[in-house]
Amino acid sequence: MHAISPITEATGKLFALVALSDGNVRDIENTTAERIIECLRTKDADAGKYVYETALVNQPKFSEIEGLCAVLKQVDRPQQYEFLRSCWYLALCDKELNTNEEIVIFKIGDLLGISRFDSQLAKKSATLG
To answer: Whole-model pTM?
Structure first.
């Protein structure tokens, strides 16, 4: 496998953090995460899936979130917003939104400099599909 870009690595690990945050990673979450990765990182989809799957096993810590978000600050604002919306979509795909999932996603938004209002809009957008 070729070198994994820092953005692909951060994306995969943050998705794993969201999926793990409710204490129960369901098959629908894995399938959804993989599909989102294909859409967001088409040229690095296999690497993104590998990072996600590895991170599920290694279980990234909440304390890593700041460094991972610092990497994502390198992409433009629309991509950051789409990533945040994808986090909400991942958290909501099992039809259950856990408080820990909300905490993680709001923290990601805060660290990306996305307002709580815009984060709520991203959440609403994710529920609408």
So the answer is: 0.92
